[in-house]
From TrEMBL:
Domain Calcineurin-like phosphoesterase: 40-216
Organism for this UniProt entry: Sinisalibacter lacisalsi
Lineage: Bacteria, Pseudomonadati, Pseudomonadota, Alphaproteobacteria, Rhodobacterales
Pfam families: Metallophos_2
Record's protein name: Calcineurin-like phosphoesterase domain-containing protein
Protein family according to the UniProt entry: Belongs to the metallophosphoesterase superfamily. YfcE family.
Superkingdom of the organism of origin: Bacteria
InterPro entries on file: Ap4A_hydrolase (IPR050126), Calcineurin-like_PHP_lpxH (IPR024654), Metallo-depent_PP-like (IPR029052)
Length: 268
């Protein structure tokens, strides 16, 4: 397991995930970072830069050019390995897995050999200190990058993931994660588990835009990322990615919810 120690970060820090080949969303995040005075080396991505959307190579190039720290998501790991699918952890036979076949083919065609080599070097966990707290950043969980953890997941499941992270990277005060696509916070025996959400798609709540996390002197805040999704929608349509995630950009509702717990399927 690769661990990246970023040392002590001073000033605001932005954590985000799930760009999902949505260049419009990434551009909006960069503008927000500029307004907040957050340089590229204090932007941390929880992974899944690509997948689902229409502009994977462009998003990878921009993320690297701005110097963001990136924790490998399941998609980065699968692309680096030359795998046949995204390894997203969707249930067998699910609509989500069927839809994924189209966007995986597009992503696999567009990502270059050099970009795959870079993905191979990405850490599984990044750790840093900020305002007296030690944070670990993972993609899904400590036991697997494609681990789905939801607001309703039992506390003992979170505890096992935290134990795995601590065993690999040392004790922490908070964990920042992604993968599930829903931004939320949980208190697990005094440790904060914070899902930063995703910027590339809305969180199935009927509203456009994404979510991201900002750390300031007074703690962590989950923030909305507002942007015009029309360019990302057009990019998906132009390459034939019209299986439902394109419409989700416009409606704020996912085309499939079979990866969600039953209580969340009607909308978050």
């Amino acid at each position: 397991m690769r661990i990246a120690d970023l040392g002590t970060l001073r000033g605001p820090v932005i954590a985000y995930g799930g760009t999902l080949a949505n260049l419009a969303a990434l551009g909006a995040l960069l503008r927000e970072a500029g307004r907040a005075g957050v340089p590229g080396d204090r932007l941390i991505c929880t992974g899944d830069i690509v997948g689902i959307g229409g502009q994977p190579a462009e998003c990878l190039a921009a993320t690297r050019a701005y110097g963001h720290t990136v924790v490998a998501g399941n998609i980065e790991r699968q692309l680096a390995a030359g795998a046949a699918d995204s390894g997203s952890g969707y249930p067998p036979g699910s609509v989500a897995r069927r839809i994924a076949a189209a966007w995986w083919r597009h992503t696999d065609r567009q990502v270059t050999a050099a970009q795959r080599d870079w993905m191979e070097t990405l850490p599984d966990i990044a750790v840093f200190a900020h305002e007296g707290r030690r944070y670990a950043v993972v993609h899904g969980g400590g036991t697997a990058p494609a681990r789905f953890l939801w607001p309703s997941t039992p506390a003992e499941v979170f505890a096992r993931e935290i134990e795995a992270i601590a065993a690999a990277a040392g004790p922490v005060d908070a964990v920042i994660a992604g993968h599930a696509g829903l931004a939320f916070e949980r208190d697990i025996s005094g440790l904060r588990w914070i899902n930063a959400g995703m910027i590339g798609l809305p969180p199935h709540d009927g509203r456009r835009g994404g979510r991201y996390l900002r750390l300031d002197a007074d703690g962590a805040r989950i923030l909305r990322l507002e942007y015009d999704p029309a360019p990302a929608f057009a990019a998906m349509v132009a390459v034939g990615l019209t299986q439902g995630w394109d419409l989700a950009l416009m409606t704020g509702r996912w085309p499939c919810t079979d990866m969600l717990p039953e209580a969340l399927r009607r909308g978050c």
